[in-house]
Amino acid sequence: MEKIRVGFFGFGKTGKVVANEFLSDPLFTLTWVVRRSQVDHQKYASHMLGHEFAAGEIFAATDVNEDFFLARPVDIIVDFSDSTGVRLYKKAAQMGIPIISAISKYEPQDLELLQSYIKLTPVLYSPNITLGINVVMVAAQILQKIAPHADIEIVEEHFKGKTEISGTAQKIASVLNLEPEHVNSIRVGGIVGHHEIIFGMPYQIIRLSHQSINRAAFGQGAIFGAKFLIGKPPGMYTMETIIAEMFRQNIPVY
Which residues form the Dihydrodipicolinate reductase N-terminal domain (predicted)? Predict the structure, then answer.
């Protein structure tokens, strides 16, 4: 079986961990990595991450031109860069290459550009691509329908240096139709990310929680998404919709 060739955008703290997950999975081969700067230009991501084989040649954003994707063909693009990264792979979208975007926050014009690609190719867009948080998010929506009068609060905990409110917590609040004041933030130590949704009802409390203990969880989510996206028709997909469909297919029958 031929390996799935991955083109990767972003090689920061999280990007390196995610790239390493693809390097370690026998189903995939990391063909190239594009990063914003010229740092480590044309070195191999695999060597930098401790592997002996050569994979994931590193290019700068300025290397990406009209011929880049023809000269270095891939089966899927995974983007862990920043809001502007979407501007670099317009040609790839026109070629029908599937795209996974895990950008936590897009500027409006960049999100509009990403959305324009769905007419050309399948796009999986999930700001938090971990499998667990999306399972929790879908479960919370189901529970809210079962217990519509429950009091709901969201608690998000992150590392001390994170100043903004978690984008994932804001997404949870949005899908549950909660006002921002129902999001409670805690900043302490080096927590990677912890989200909890608390349902308060008479005589009982239900807590749905998810904790990322390593950034590799984002890599496993991207791998899950890539396996799903290959071969899908053009359109917009999210981890939520994938998980919701799996819930529907696997509801036990009594």
Answer: 4-128
